[in-house]
């Protein structure tokens, strides 16, 4: 199999572009928010109502303290103020419930749209994307990181609207009560803003580095789970524990640094507020001694001032999750911005004749990379079987990967039925091709749905395909037959059964062009005999490209192309190539001696 491209030859990993800001994230989220604008506005109005009720509490204290106590207390103050407190609490409770529901509705709807958009872009990404990104990184982005945007939508919006308006209403009431004292409180706000901006930049960098480490940690888990047999056979538990522990400790270090920097804002804010409170109390006492304020006015002012501290604290505390959300946004929108693979020229293709031609095809992974294919030319007539042979790394798999446009050639042209591949709609092109690879992929679904993958399952056709692949007796013996779940990547089946199920999928598709990449590599001799017979029946009238390291499986090919270092160095029938005594004859002799031994 040809070498995979090195990561540096491909585009940058998702989430490593330009840093996001709240404004840029807002612009990106606007298309998702626009259809829900009415609901969002209603949520903001209910939050504003919650904020307004916050300032109502100290406003009710002033008449109660000034006129509700003592023998000459006002009956209105004694009875109406408590009633107003109950009414205010009821309005506040209803507004809080309504705002919570409306915000959850809006944010979850946006979350749904983002997640679907991310999965859609991922599923239509180029093959290079899947070779560049680890599964854990993509899973984190689609399943977990998108929730960070949800948290930002909820937490930041609630804080920005409710707590900001609460501060505005309370400051307005403070200014109404005593504008001189209010100026002292107002001096705090620029100081706090300056403090937050200093901490912001540091937090964002730490969040971004922490996210990269989280992805690396997930990848270690992914590798260990996927390679558990190798880990156990080679006693690699200690190695994996050390690797996981080292990465976890690095991640913990970054998280603790985030805690240190994120936690500085709150105590510093409280310290500044305590200084202001001390000054206010001192000045208020002086004013009271000169009859410039009343007891009710003083208590209402101090209460309002203390109530301001809590929403200010929330505004400061939102900084850390906000920066975490900005880091998540880079990953999310990086995936959404991932270029989709080319869709082609749009030319339809109902059923191809199966004529395939490679004209001086070259291929290189990335600019300046080593050529994988150089000036490869050959043609296959409809129904012809072309076999590709050669040592590992000669470019055989890369060559067949160009036919379904997993990659586009760096030079030359590939034609199907005389038309360049780029002129066809890519989905129409791929509907003409069935692929059975040495790397079998099965889905955790029923046997029937795996065989008919991508199409509606016809049980009669599924059974015929399973019989042709010499697998029907095995499937029929299962408790639920064709409706049996095969498990994660077919873990409930043996290696040979998995390979035959993949062959049954190709038989079911009934495509005019077949690509068989070591399609019988996992079969025992008896199964291989049956499957070879089924494949020969299937290949009748269909163009087939076969890759096989076991040369005995391609002896009956119409032509054999022998590849070395990305070039076709020999071509002919099996007997012709043996008579040439070249590379093919050498490979055949080596395998014959190995089989004899």
Automatic annotation (TrEMBL):
Main location: membrane
Boundaries of every ABC transmembrane type-1 domain copy: 41-324
UniProt cross-references to Pfam families, sorted A to Z: ABC_membrane (PF00664), ABC_tran (PF00005)
Compartments reported by the entry: Cell membrane
Gene Ontology MF annotations: ABC-type oligopeptide transporter activity; ATP binding; ATP hydrolysis activity; ATPase-coupled lipid transmembrane transporter activity
SUPFAM superfamilies: ABC transporter transmembrane region, P-loop containing nucleoside triphosphate hydrolases
Gene3D superfamilies, per the entry: ABC transporter type 1, transmembrane domain, P-loop containing nucleotide triphosphate hydrolases
Name of this chain's protein: Lipid A export permease/ATP-binding protein MsbA
Source organism of this protein record: Paraburkholderia dinghuensis
Phylogenetic placement of the source organism: Bacteria, Pseudomonadati, Pseudomonadota, Betaproteobacteria, Burkholderiales
């Amino acid at each position: 199999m040809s070498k995979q491209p090195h990561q540096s030859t491909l585009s940058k990993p998702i989430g490593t572009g330009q840093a996001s800001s709240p404004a840029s994230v807002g612009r990106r989220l606007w298309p998702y928010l626009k259809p829900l604008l009415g609901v969002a506005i209603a949520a903001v109005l209910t939050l504003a109502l919650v904020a307004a009720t916050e300032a109502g509490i100290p406003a009710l204290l002033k008449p109660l303290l000034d006129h509700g106590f003592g023998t000459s207390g006002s009956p209105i103050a004694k009875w109406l103020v408590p009633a107003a407190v109950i009414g205010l609490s009821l309005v506040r409770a209803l507004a809080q419930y309504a705002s919570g529901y409306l915000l959850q509705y809006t944010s979850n709807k946006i979350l749904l749209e983002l997640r679907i958009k991310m999965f859609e872009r991922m599923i239509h990404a180029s093959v290079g994307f899947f070779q560049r990104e680890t599964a854990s990184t993509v899973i984190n982005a689609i399943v977990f990181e998108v929730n960070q945007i949800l948290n930002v939508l909820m937490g930041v919006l609630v804080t920005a609207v409710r707590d900001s308006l609460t501060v505005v209403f309370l400051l307005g009431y403070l200014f109404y009560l005593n504008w001189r004292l209010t100026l002292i409180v107002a001096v705090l706000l620029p100081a706090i803003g300056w403090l937050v901006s200093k901490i912001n930049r540091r937090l964002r960098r730490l969040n971004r580095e922490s996210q990269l480490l989280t992805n690396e940690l997930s990848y270690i888990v992914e590798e260990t789970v996927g390679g558990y047999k190798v880990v156990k056979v080679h006693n690699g538990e200690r190695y994996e524990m050390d690797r996981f522990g080292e990465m976890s400790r690095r991640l913990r270090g970054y998280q603790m640094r985030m805690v240190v920097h994120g936690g500085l804002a709150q105590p510093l804010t409280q310290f500044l507020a305590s200084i202001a409170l001390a000054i206010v109390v001192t000045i208020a006492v002086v004013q009271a001694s000169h009859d410039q304020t009343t007891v009710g006015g003083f208590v209402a002012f101090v209460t309002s001032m203390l109530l301001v501290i809590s929403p200010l604290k929330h505004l400061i505390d939102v900084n850390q999750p906000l920066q975490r959300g900005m880091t998540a946004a880079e990953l999310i929108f990086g995936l959404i911005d991932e270029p989709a693979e080319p869709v082609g020229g749009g030319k339809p293709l109902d059923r191809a004749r199966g004529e395939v031609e490679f004209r001086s095809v070259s291929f290189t992974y990335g600019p300046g990379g080593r050529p994988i294919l150089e000036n490869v030319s050959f043609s296959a007539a409809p129904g012809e079987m072309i076999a590709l042979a050669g040592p590992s790394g000669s470019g055989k798999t890369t060559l067949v990967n160009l036919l379904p446009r997993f990659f586009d050639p760096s030079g030359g042209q590939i034609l199907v039925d005389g038309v360049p591949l780029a002129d066809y709609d890519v989905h129409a092109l791929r509907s003409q091709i069935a692929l059975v690879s040495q790397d079998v992929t099965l889905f955790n679904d029923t046997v029937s749905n795996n065989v008919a993958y991508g199409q509606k399952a016809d049980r009669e056709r599924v059974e015929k395909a399973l019989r042709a692949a010499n697998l029907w007796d095995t499937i029929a013996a299962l408790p639920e037959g064709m409706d049996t779940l095969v498990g994660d990547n077919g873990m409930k089946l043996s290696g040979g059964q998995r390979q035959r199920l993949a062959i049954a999928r190709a038989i079911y598709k009934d495509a005019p062009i077949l690509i068989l990449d070591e399609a019988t590599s996992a079969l025992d001799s008896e199964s291989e005999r049956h499957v070879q017979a089924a494949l020969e029946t299937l290949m009748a009238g269909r163009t087939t490209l076969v890759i096989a390291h076991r040369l005995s499986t391609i002896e009956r090919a119409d032509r054999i192309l022998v590849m070395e270092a990305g070039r076709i160095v020999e071509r002919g029938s099996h007997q012709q190539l043996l008579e040439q005594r070249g590379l093919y004859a050498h490979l055949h002799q080596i395998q014959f001696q190995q089989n004899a031994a």
